[in-house]
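User: Could you walk me through two proteins back to back? I'd like the raw sequence and the structure tokens for each, with a short line separating them so I can tell where one ends and the next begins.

Assistant: Of course. Protein one, sequence then structure:
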Amino acid sequence: MKLFEAVNPLLERIRHAGKKSWLIAGLSVFIIIVLAIVVFPESATIATVESTEGEFIIDLLTRGEIDALNSTSVSLPRMRRHMTYKIIDMAEEGSTVKKGDFLIQVDNAEALQNVDEAKDKLANSKAQLESEKATIASNMAQLVSQLQSERYSYQQAELSLKMMQFEAEAKKQEYELNKKKADVALKQAEEKIESQKIIDRATLMRAELDVRQAESELREAEKFLDALTLTAPIDGLVVYQEIFTSSGMKKVQVGDSPWPGMPIVGIPDLALMQSKTTVNEVDISKLEKGQNVIVTVDALEGKNYYGKISRVASLARRERSTNVKVFDVEVTLDSTDTQLRPGMTCECRIITGRIQNALSIPLQSVFQKDGKTVVYVQGGRKPKMREVTVGEKSSDTIVITSGLNPGERVCLRDPTIPLSEVGGESNTVAPKPKKKRQSSGPSGRMIIM
């Protein structure tokens, strides 16, 4: 910058000089520029940033996945009979559904046959009941007729006995005997009717029980048939679950035959969303429920979602891919929108602390030299190395507690290392973040020296 400031007046003089003078001066400027590039090749391309004082945010960056806070599973019905489930139709995954909308159709040919058989059984049971009723009525009519006949005979015998009171004793005894016979026959007819009533009641109860059982079987068959058409229990999004197959775990699809009772669809409630992430065991002591979190979704660049830590796992688990111990952490989002979907990859910026009136610079501008922590401060013809004391740091910013003043500009790379070697082994306090993101703390504007 200073080189161009020095050359600029010379260029003004060239504009007002003659042709010969212009050629000489132009050649001089060219030589100066070439010498500057040769002598100062590195300092001409070093980016700097201004140290700033203000609130410093201590954060922790983690990677996670968006999920619904509440989700309802939909399972295949449990069988009470031998039957193989086979999926023949499915709603499109990712589609939005309302309560009662179609999700999955299981092959129901066998279930339809079971319903038809249950209907036939019910019809036969009802017909048998009516037949039993008719038989009972017919038999009872005969018994009643016989009873009436026996009662009439008894009355006749009783009347004849009264008329024989003045007849001979022998004749009288004959009529008394006839009366006793009629009396016995009448009682037998009455007892037979009572006995038959008991038998008839049992017969009817058995026939009615058969009807009720057939009705129950029909209801069960129809209920089972309806259960083979899976519908959404709530409003939400269609997300198919993975099932175990002969070729391994995979999402359910048409033609699969899942086990009875197996959950095959999840319906997440999109009204309440969360981020599920993990934190390394060395950082878990920094976390607690209620801490503020800024969530950015990879697929929705430029949008921030805000939330709070709602759960920190009590026990660590090992990551299968790295064998590192981590703790599961859940972040409930304060709000959501139609763009947010379960399964989206996200970054969680967990705010673990704040420091007021802190002087901070980017992490990439702090270096280790001979066991000392240093920065390179802009000044004069080339940056000057200065030892500093550092404090708290965030994902990409660090606090300077001594050795640097607010407003001073520091280099974002080590100027003692040739530009051609930058990108090799780093000697900074912490690596530069790979992902471009909003700064964790106050930062200045970068310029080119």
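----
Protein two, same layout:
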Amino acid sequence: MWHRNNFGVLLISLLLLRVHAAFIRRLECSSSDDAVIDPIFEPSSLRGYLDTKHANKTILSLTLGGDYESHNCEALGGALARISIDARVLGRSVVTDDRLLDSSGACPELSPVDYPRSDPRTYAMYRASYSLDHAYRMNTLATTIRLRLNDTDIHCNAANITPYIGATASGVLKGVPLAIMILTGVINGAVMICRSRGRRVFRYELANASRDPAESYFPGLGDCLHYIQFIFLTGCLTLSYPGFFRASVGELAWSSLILRNWPVTHSFIYPGVEDNIYAVNATYGFEEMAQYLGATTMSDLWTNAIVNLALVLLGVIVASQLVWLIKSAWQLFPTRGSTHIIDLPTEFLTHIQHMGWSVARVLLNYFLHPIVALSLYQPLLATWYPVYRTFLAVSFVAALAVSLAFIVWYLVKDDRQNNFFYKGAYPRNSSHDWLSDTLYMVPFLRGLAIGALQTSGLGQILVLISCELFILSCLLWNWRVQRAWRHACFATVRLVIVGMSCAFLPRAGVHEGNKALVGYFIISLHAAVLFTGFIIDCLYEMVRFVLSKLGFVDPRAADMDHHSDKAPVRLSPSFTT
């Protein structure tokens, strides 16, 4: 107990005086807890500090400030009141009064009538420190905080305290999905190049459907990026997620062009992590995610995302030009025995075509979903910003919709959608299967749900569930013609994850311990999909190709399997002939 550790008490007391402490959002206690409260104390602030500097001990410090209804703290003996807590992880108590190290209370030093309330000395302040076994990273402490005076509870608040997940976990959560995405694109690209039977990487003839200018150098990269974006953006729903869940999926913000707080911040950035605790207090999911990230406001994040998108497009153009210049310079020096005459105008035209398709792919495929979601969130901020800002955001989404519709129409008329979308292409029942073509517009519905419906978490879930059911219905409609197992599996996984997210609806009344279990399961499911759906899949393609070269697999069968399953569906006979 604390009275046995006088030196420790002195050290902790000095520590409490020097730290600023992080803001902690106060929640209502359960009805059973409120029933035994004599509410004579009105809280105004709750702050916390997590000290992880000690090798074998972690210290949680809390500071509670507020007023007594009678404004007569001294007469009530308010300085004798003490904080009492019960913090739970997965329903198990990990911090109770048995772990108390230090506790103190003080009535206001200054009169709240004569001095401004911005001065903390006009409030009654209570402090307490507790020892923890460890920092409980990747956990959320579901905490009940009571203020007791003369063995009577005079106040009760609940709080979900989320410790910082740590630099190691942050790096893993950022780096592993990024590595999976890059590895998927590189392996699939290498297999595609080798399957071209030695043809030049940069040679794309329109007469040859297998070397269409619309084809990507890194097939499969976009599909992995889409799923990573799904992980992040569903973590931005207006739901009561456990703190560790939103902090974990927030590490994937890079996938949605949220890279850093520039170039626009208006000199304001959320603190993010303060004193090893996430300091958040928001109404909508997007804004709360920005607070977990320590980012600027969502209005500025949209501007920054547009700037980052422009920089990515510029990078694609510059890289494409450099590659073409290097290739052209190399071809100017004929090799021994070569009689090939380079037609530079034709080569340049082919290069421009491929560069244009690459820009279209980045804009209308890779980053369509996050840009639509961020843009459609801007009308909710129209009250605080000029009208032209909302007009620009909505107009940009409309322009993207028209552009994507034209691209899809242009590609499907020649059955070339698989070259552009790769595994993101959907099966078609006939050349006039407009229902399947509308599936390419699903990202706009998801963006509408995630961005425009931030005021209703239930509405977001219903629209997202409808999107997955619509995809599964269209796949089932075309099942006898083309069996899209990959699309069906991913849509089913997304449907299950969104359905499980109903546990985070405030009206569901699920306890924090059960919410944490659901959050851990969803994170595990995401990890399983990334490894099995992308890493194992591309390794399987590589092994099949190697075995076909070694003669263990019929090369024609392997090549036919590539053309039928390399996209997420078996292509129709009209395409493979």
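The chain is about 50% helix and 15% strand.

Let me know if you want the two compared in more detail.
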